[in-house]
Amino acid sequence: MRTLPVFESLHGYQRAWLRPDVIAGLTVWAVLVPEALAYASIAGVPPVVGLYAAIPALVLYALAGSSRHLIVGPMSATAALSAAIITPMAGADSGRYLAMSTALAIATGIVGLLAGLIRLGFIASFISEPVLKGFIVGLALTIIIGQVPKLFGVHKHDGNFFEQAWGVIRDLGDTQWRTLLIGLLGLAVVLGLKRWLPLVPGSLLAVLLGIVAVQLFGLDDKGVDIVGHIDAGLPSVGLPSGVGFDDYLDLLGPAIGVLLIGFAEGLGAAKTYAAKAGYTIDPNRELLGLGAANLGAGLGSGMVVNGSLSKTAVNGGAGAKTQVSGLVVAVLTVLTLLFLTGLFEKLPEATLAAVVIAAVIELVDIAALRRLYRVWNQLLGSIYGHAARADFLAAMAAMFGVLLFDTLPGLLIGIGVSILLLVYRSSEPHVAALAKQGSLWVDTARHPDLVSRPDLLVVRVEAGLFFANADYVKTRIEQLCTDSTRLVVLDAETSPALDVTAAEMLLDLRNALSHKRIDFRIARSVAQFGEALGSAEAGDTPIGIYPTVAAAAAELPPQSHTPRSTDG
Fold it and tell me: What global pTM score does this model have?
């Protein structure tokens, strides 16, 4: 009997991993606490709610998720989406607003668990690697520009990436030099130690130095923004009061959007660090982990959570090996709520911004986008050009979608463009004219030196045949025929799928070729192909189907081998 795989990242744990996991946990804790406070404010709930959400989310994701590195907690994208969902539902009632925000986390958790249990992780297949890469780059740039105002001590503007960037440029004259100095020093500490002393936890050291600087020089009295007051104590556990069954039903639809955003960002971060560490991510387990994390956050008086790109970057950069680092963060967050809230009250916002920027800047993988463009450029005009173009355009669509229209629209734009380009690519598949090389039939476009019989045309469609490409395939095969062609053989081995429209097309093609005194036969069809074609042929003369191309061409009178006609 198969056991439920819980705490899977801890299986085979090695003692040598404990030190890097604890150091990574300390480093993430130093970032998570102030970030959770800030993201709770974005969601419109008291800052401490962000800490309430983080504790159960970290533990339950470690229990159910498949990533060894992903850190789950409150995030800006889902926090802003939560505010947009709850504001029209709760109005000016602050108590109901808090209760509905918590209920949204519970609804998101339920949706995530159901999606994982019925194995909807295949949805991740629609988020291609180029789309995910473009999405991550766009999201990382958005996170960075959101932190830059804190670094300069200027006002943060609303809007998309470009509007926020323009706002920063306009306000550069209002830069607080003390804020900028402490932020740049923090950035230098993190990046410098990461490059030259990678074993030293630079993020944690920067946070501690920032707190010490505020204490020693009274920087908070000289215009340097700090995190400020944090309420102490643990949260209550249970369902939020005043939220009825109908409210949960109303929240289920919006919860799907929250889950999709959380799933995409978490999956992107998880895959990025899984690839570096050499293990795989299970999308269904990710849905279960995210669902459990949100359900726990909601029952713990928290808010919606998701896999964090920035904190996962901090975790991976600090040397984490397993989810022990996340459990360390959870324990430290509990201790923070009980005893250490005063410590983070003096943390400069500029230092926090520096730590976040340093963490995500490596995820702005412009080199990967350049590679996609270079591949497209190299293959332009070749039979692979459509695929390369689709990958590059999908990545660009996802990136600029995030930069221009925010996280969820950007992701949906990237997926939509990817699917449209896939359909477009499928609508014009490569139709290869084949020539014999030994015992094989190969594409003459790849082997232009081969000769073929002028009265025989063997073609292969490198895709399934269906309604979207049926007309194109028929037209292309007719174009490949010459005045000398007497037999067309379709090698169907690379076309495993055939729908009704395509089957009718093949009958029309047979009839059209017959008027030109050209015979049409099919070779090497798979079972489904033959069955679909047989259904379409009911009452009509069947197309000849042969086990091999050689068998299909055997009845053709032998001809001497001559170079392929230049007009075909």
Answer: 0.74
